Amino acid sequence: MIDVRMVRVLVLSLIAMVGLRGDARAQSFAVGHAFATPVHPNAIAVGDFNGDGHQDLAVPCYSPNAVAIFLGNGVGGFAPAVSYAAGGGPRFAVVADFNADGRADIAVANQDSNDVAVLIGTGTGEFEPAVRITAGLRPFHIAVSDLNNDGHVDMAVANSASHTISVLRGDGFGGFSSAGSVPVGTNRPESCCVFRSN
Ligand SMILES: [Ca+2]
Ligand SMILES: [Ca+2]
Fold this sequence. Notes:
The protein is mostly beta strands.
């Protein structure tokens, strides 16, 4: 039985080798390690939050409505999590540089408070308090891209209960404003991605 307080994270030397070499032929992994998280982890996002060249993890967790940050040591280990308040029901997290300062930031989809939390990274592994932007009902997923070709990172948010994709326009300084939403049918959109069709 899976303990919901734990997230099993396969952090293995072989994975690091694949990342460094881009070797798609590697097909096996060593035994994984489990790391304690706050209650009910929902997703994992990867980035280098303290600029040491080692991958770190952001794990949105239902309780206590936070995103847990694990700083990696580069050999498969992680420091105990430090949590940052995110909003109601953190469901998904994505890493991007929203204010173009070269430091990784995080956005979290909050399915219970119907918003997206943006946490600006300081580059030391810590984050500024979350700024929350209204999305649709029960946002489950975020995709990041420059959607209007202004050079700033924007977000598309899949809202599972309002059956829409919200577009949040980035200002390049970490701020976002709503650019409306697009209906996508009635079958609970729970994920989205960005691609160019022409
Ligand atoms: Ca790091
Ligand atoms: Ca940044």
